[in-house]
Amino acid sequence: MTEPRVRPDPAxxxxxxxxxxxxxxxxxxxxxxxxxxxxxxxxxETFLGAVAACRKEYAxxxxxxxxxGVARHKLADHxxxxxxxxxxxxxxxxxxVSDQDVVDPWxxxxxxxxxxxxxxxxxxxxxAALTLRYVDGLGVPEVAGHLGRSxxxxxxxxxxxxxxxxxxxxxxxxxxx
Length: 177
Prior knowledge:
Elements: H1 12-33, H2 36-54, H3 64-89, H4 99-102, H5 112-121, H6 124-135, H7 140-147, H8 151-176
Helix pairs in contact: 1-2, 1-3, 2-3, 3-6, 5-8, 6-7, 6-8, 7-8
């Protein structure tokens, strides 16, 4: 009588990668959210999500790049959740977009530290859109997919987010001078 063969848990592939991938995933998240506690929580969620994904029938090959992709989704999920919470608390309607906000010839050189501070001061929906578009370099359709919005709604969000960023950046520049 033959003993049944035990199939190894596919999540064990993560174990070999864990020590090298952990700082990469954490660093990716920290550089985008700027909050150590949040980056730690999202890193944990990333690896837990990766374990679950590895156990699916048609799981993708495990790599650091794949884990960074999982982390990007976890961060986008966090921003969506935070925006829903803020929207629930917010009673003021969204501001309207003026014609001059649509044209964006702003080609001034940005101070990186000031830009990071301004980005952190924006609402999560603006921060998510700007980070995915300009820090991660995703196209508008990809940003729309991550944020669960239509392409048209994402384009409008990006216009408002750039305008909000510019206003906050220029205000901060005036205070820092």
